[in-house]
Amino acid sequence: MSLAHPRRPVLGAALKDAGLAALIAAGLFLPMVGLRTDVGPTGALFLRTRWTDVLLLVAIVFAGRFLIRLWQEWRAERHGPSLQKRLAGPMLRLGRFVAPALLLFALLLPLIPGIGRYELDLGILVLTYVMLGWGLNIVVGLAGLLDLGYVAFYAVGAYSYALLAQYFGLSFWICLPLAGLLAAFWGILLGFPVLRLRGDYLAIVTLGFGEIIRLVLLNWVSLTGGPNGISGIPRPSFFGLAFTAGGGPGSFADFFGLEPSPTHRVVFLYYLILALALLTNWVTLRLRRQPLGRAWEAMREDEIACRSLGINITTTKLTAFALGAMFGGFAGAFFATRQAFISPESFTFIESAIILAIVVLGGLGSQLGVAIAALVLIGGFEVFRDLQEWRMLVFGAAMVLIMIWKPRGLVGSRTPTVALSEKRTISAAMVAEGRG
Amino acid sequence: MAPILTVEKLTMRFGGLTAVKEVSFTAAEGAITAVIGPNGAGKTTMFNCITGFYRPTGGSLVLHHGGQEVALHRLAGHRIARAGVARTFQNVRLFAGMTALENLLVAQHRKLMASTGFGIGAVLGLSGYKAAEQAAIGRATAWLEACGLIDRADDPAGSLPYGAQRRLEIARAMCTEPALLCLDEPAAGLNPRESTALGELLRAIRDGRAAEGAAPCSILLIEHDMGVVMGISDHIVVLDHGSKIADGTPAAIRADEKVIAAYLGEGDEDEHEDSAA
């Protein structure tokens, strides 16, 4: 009896809570799901009602909320470490194998039987975002500078390659470093005015910068073609061997005596972006263990203390912006050569937001976390394509769940760059996010 | 004794408020100079001028280091540290998410950066960065030992107890190899035993015997704990309402009527007239 007694109010509270949640859900879903305009047989619009769907959704919300509340109560009553804490040990051991396993999988993907054009294209897309995430990770994760306009550098890189190829006929391999350099230059250009800004102010100015670049591209019709974009961007060659569909002399297939196949180019592009992404990762990992990378992290932790130690904040911030931008530029040049067509449409704010979401969900400063987040976010987008309009809902729910479960991102902890005895992971609670 | 720092008519105004008014004093090389005064006397403001966090409204600050005279009041913040002035903060400012060892390596940033070949050489593994880093770790280890933190070297700075954080901050400042170490209330929040140990450490730093390979270092400190100040200072400067009211050895300061009046408050107007005369 004594056990049953406190149970009753808990059940009632959970019911009340679930009812409230269901009420809010009903308010939201009634107009959004319940009413729908369709085109009738005569071409006129008519209003279709879907009350059963609404009822179903509200019931799901009610049941879900009720169960969550009950589970919370049950967990609070139980003593001992939470599930997350008990899993921490095995997860850590598992984590050590995740990075090599992912790398091996990425390297072997095109060789796995049954992997077709679609899977490789998806792989290329995911790797592009992995690379962009790693590039932005330098600025946001290591240096702690919140940059909402990262897509601007992606655009600079893409347009650099497209324009250089179009006007001067330069090849991809010459344009790639040039695109990186130009993006880095724009990174420094953005860096100067925002040196004094912090946090929200920095975010707003970088957001504006991203939009400025897009609007210039959109309106400078004589150079960029404006909204029509640039088409016919040359494809990259394999050390001078072109990937032509018909084979022919001097083509990749001809040189190696292979049957001409459009898959060759896709595989080549896949390995190209993989190499570029790994380059980004390698440079970042190397720099982290060196004075510059440590100065970035120190700046994220405490800028004033950095200054008192003789670290030049100006150059340290600018190098972070420049390096992050450079990798964005590389990715942009790759994007241009892969698509063979670019327009300002591809460089809207939502791209910046997705890249930032990858970095934040993955864990600021964590290379592995960013890679997993890119895989989940971009890959998940494709996997749930069948869900059509529900895709965004699933996607949003997943993001909310991750933020509840791991507020500091999937891998929020930090590995020291150097140690006297053994490197012990620093818990996420210690590490600062940076205030701009 | 030769001076390490000459402060000449230093004035700092914030709008209509004059926080520091024409303060002049000299800190001697190889000595511990303390700046004391009641709350709001302008100690921290003066400190921020010396360490480059404020640009003084008037007056000059000259550091005498290695036979050269450096005008600190003209330098940008990070250049003052490079000129040989290191500081700690009233509310400890460590890099909490980095280990104690990493904190000390960040302090040696300039020296290490020079060995990386603009950062590019070290990424490619070309320059003599490895050797430079080993030397830096050696120096950091020596200071961790000096501060009794060698066992916590690989723990994040934020997880250390408060007293250890204070010591680590001093070690970090010392890793920049300064000529003058400026401490802003180093004994704040320490228990008596820790305060005594701190006094020992500061004396050792002054004489250059704190850590292996450390050079003697002059110290300038702000402190409220009179026990610490009187025990370790060679020279004391007293500020009140932004002006210097006394300057001398601990014994002389203890006997100074103006200092006593400033700390304990004047009895009434008559007494004030007397002491001023």
TrEMBL record, chain A:
It comes from the Bacteria. One of its GO terms (cellular component) is plasma membrane. It is found in: Cell membrane. InterPro entries: ABC_transp_permease (IPR001851), LivHM_N (IPR021807), LivM-like (IPR043428). Residues 14-108 form the High-affinity branched-chain amino acid transport system permease LivHM N-terminal domain. GO terms for molecular function: branched-chain amino acid transmembrane transporter activity. The chain crosses the membrane at residues 20-39, 51-71, 91-112, 124-146, 166-189, 201-221, 268-285, 318-341, 353-378, 390-407. This is High-affinity branched-chain amino acid ABC transporter permease LivM. It is a multi-pass membrane protein. The gene is livM. Keywords: Cell membrane, Membrane, Transmembrane, Transmembrane helix.
UniProtKB/TrEMBL annotation, chain B:
Residues 5-266 form the ABC transporter domain. The keyword Nuclease does not apply. InterPro entries: AAA+_ATPase, ABC_AA/LPS_Transport, ABC_transporter-like_ATP-bd, BCA_ABC_TP_C, P-loop_NTPase. Keywords: Amino-acid transport, ATP-binding, Nucleotide-binding, Transport. GO terms for cellular component: plasma membrane. PROSITE patterns: ABC_TRANSPORTER_2. One of its GO terms (biological process) is L-alanine transport. GO terms for molecular function: ATP binding; ATP hydrolysis activity; L-isoleucine transmembrane transporter activity; L-phenylalanine transmembrane transporter activity; L-valine transmembrane transporter activity. Transmembrane segments: none annotated. SUPFAM superfamilies: P-loop containing nucleoside triphosphate hydrolases. Belongs to the ABC transporter superfamily. This is ABC transporter ATP-binding protein.
